[in-house]
Write a structure and sequence with these properties.
CATH class of the largest domain: Mainly Alpha
CATH architecture of the largest domain: Orthogonal Bundle
Number of strands: 0
Helix content: over 70%
Strand content: under 5%
Shape: globular
Number of domains: 2
Largest sheet: none
Distance between the termini: 63 Å
Number of helices: 15
Radius of gyration: 23 Å
Structural class: mainly alpha
Length: about 325
């Protein structure tokens, strides 16, 4: 009886807390920038203690109360945050690893975003990707119209043309961007929820040190094979084939960069030189494209030739 009373109390508290955070996110933009990352935590906490069956009851309660206090649109948006909290909470209860939490959170995000995309496309006849692309192109054209100086500057015009080309390619890279955004949000949620739930005495898995991250060696061959197919076969298969190869290539390229950064951290750790240099290299790789390509190459070499074992043996 005591356990049932405690479960009801925790469920009610989690529901109220979720609705409060959602209201702050919706109506207080400054706070919403931060609170949007806290939305999955209440149901994640409850599900990690009571399991997914009880978590589903809180899920429905949050959805219904959100409709009553806001509107149907915000309630549908709330599903995105409730689902990731429910899924990651259940994996916490099952004592899964940190990487399993990240993968599950990423997959739940992708599922909800695909459903939202389908609703926009088939019910409202709106393609979100094309709409975003058109808005970017309009903003570029507006910037050029408002600044005659830029129109006479050849270097500036080249940069704007490059920006237009990237915006037009956004639709082709939409699947890869979807995966990247879903993974990034899931990672932020996992980091923040870990900091909160540990204080509430919820067991939370520890991340393996970044320097020890290693992906499967087969990914190198997938990367090289996709690179060859993308340039030799992709155009012959038409836009669909090209889009598939480009998206696979983009995702694998991100993995190779992560592998390269992990190798750099491992190298400096073995040399006992601290985190200053690897942190600087990470920042430079984000800001300076040539540095990023060097990190990418290091990641490919590390996976293909196992540089770490050679460094360790020395």
């Amino acid at each position: 009886m005591a356990n049932r009373t405690r479960m009801i109390t925790e469920g009610a508290a989690s529901t109220v807390l979720f609705v409060i955070i959602l209201l702050l996110t919706s109506y207080v933009p400054i706070i919403g920038i931060i609170s949007i990352f806290l939305l999955p935590i209440p149901i994640m906490y409850f599900t990690s203690k009571q399991g997914y069956k009880s978590g589903l009851i809180v899920f429905l309660s949050c959805f219904i109360i959100t409709i009553l206090v806001t509107d149907l649109l915000r309630a549908c948006v709330a599903v995105f945050f409730l689902l990731i909290g429910l899924v990651m909470g259940e994996l916490l209860k099952r004592k899964c690893s940190a990487i399993q939490l990240l993968i599950a959170g990423t997959c739940s995000n992708i599922v909800v975003l695909l459903i939202a995309y389908g609703i926009c496309a088939f019910l409202f006849h709106i393609n979100p990707i094309n709409w975003i692309t058109n808005q970017i192109l309009k903003s570029i054209d507006l910037t050029l119209k408002m600044s005659p100086y830029l129109q006479g500057n050849k270097d500036a015009m080249k940069q704007f043309e490059a920006m237009r080309a990237q915006a037009k390619n956004m639709s082709q890279l939409a699947p890869a961007l979807l995966v990247a955004i879903s993974a990034m949000y899931a990672l932020i949620i996992e980091i923040l929820s870990g900091a909160v739930l540990k204080r509430l005495r919820v067991p939370f898995p520890k991340w393996q040190p970044f320097r020890e991250w290693r992906f499967q060696r087969q990914l190198v061959w997938y990367y090289l094979g996709d690179l060859i197919l993308m340039y030799w076969v992709g155009d012959k298969w038409g836009s669909t084939g090209s889009m598939v190869f480009y998206n696979i290539f983009y995702i694998l390229e991100i993995i190779m960069v992560i592998q390269g950064l992990a190798f750099i951290y491992y190298f400096f750790y073995q040399r006992k030189q601290g985190l200053l240099f690897p942190n600087l290299i990470t920042v430079f790789s984000i800001l300076i494209p040539p540095v990023l390509y060097i990190v990418l190459i290091l990641g490919i070499i590390d996976l293909g030739f196992d540089f770490r074992s050679r460094i360790k043996s020395r």
